[in-house]
Amino acid sequence: MLFRAEIFAKFVHSLRMKQLGMKEKSKKNQGKRKGWLITAGIILIIVVTAIICLKKYAVDSFTDHAFFLYIRPNTTYQELLDTLKTKVDKNTYLRFRRMSRLDDYERKMRPGAYRLDPSMSAVDVYKILSRGLQSPVRFSFNNIRTPQQFAKRTSDQLMMDSAEVMQLFADTAFIHEAGFTQENFEAMLLPDSYEFYWTISPEELFKRMKKEYDRFWTDERRDKATAMGFTPVEISIVASIAEEETNDKKERGVVGRLYLNRLQINMPLQADPTIKFALQDFSLRRILNQHLLVESAYNTYKYAGLPPGPIRIPTKQTIDAILNSEPHSYIYMCAKEDFSGRHNFATSFSQHQQNAARYRKALNQRNIR
Asked: pTM, whole model, 2 decimals?
């Protein structure tokens, strides 16, 4: 009996040990599962956080409207941030600031004009700015009379000092290399809209203008000028006078052809706009005998032939209007007495005198001196 009791006790002990072992194993398994769950949870949090960050930085639009961001050589990092703060919402601004500080953007800032639009994310914008990937800007000019006006127009639209532009208008070596004289250099400039990088230098701008000039003056246009007996520059000078003579674009071809007629018969141009240019007084409404005494190569009452250069920067349209104008026999013109800006044309001096008398009478009635 005693032996059996011992065997039974050992059996019971064995069962208890097995139960304890199973419980211990179960605890270990539960611990492992818990560990895996915690790890999985951390990974999930990381993934979700990464997705959110990726969306905010690389997917979401940096701005809801397009705008240009201009960075000058002396623009500071803080000034750039202050500008962005006024252009985009606070969260977007903060995202850019974090990226720029992490990457030390302040040392990478590059001057330029950068167009930012809704298709760009914060990452896209940062890449563009940090790599200096400028956007072309539109440079337009029209209705320009003097180099000073052109220089101001460039400085208004480009990162350019007007004084540097004016230096090139006086740089005879640079001008001669382009194939012009200092007096007719403006003929190279053709009013239009062009695309440049905002940081273009004055030298690069003028070289581009020369390319545009050569592109405009095709063989066909040059042949038309030659058939009339004039060079492209001379046609441009005539076009500049025609533009000052009339605001009516349809009339400019007729006016230009009239001056060509005068030149072909060696008749003085006697163009009033050249007197205004010589006096540098474009406000004059009536040219008097005293004005005709001005000593200037642009005084076409005193000196025969064309003036040495354009009296304004003529448009492509006026040049074409003259090149394509129908031949006529007019050699006289006088402003219409209705002050419409148009003209009465004449082939004879007697007819011109009648036109001029009507115009003088209208001036006197309006007390225009």
From this structure: 0.81
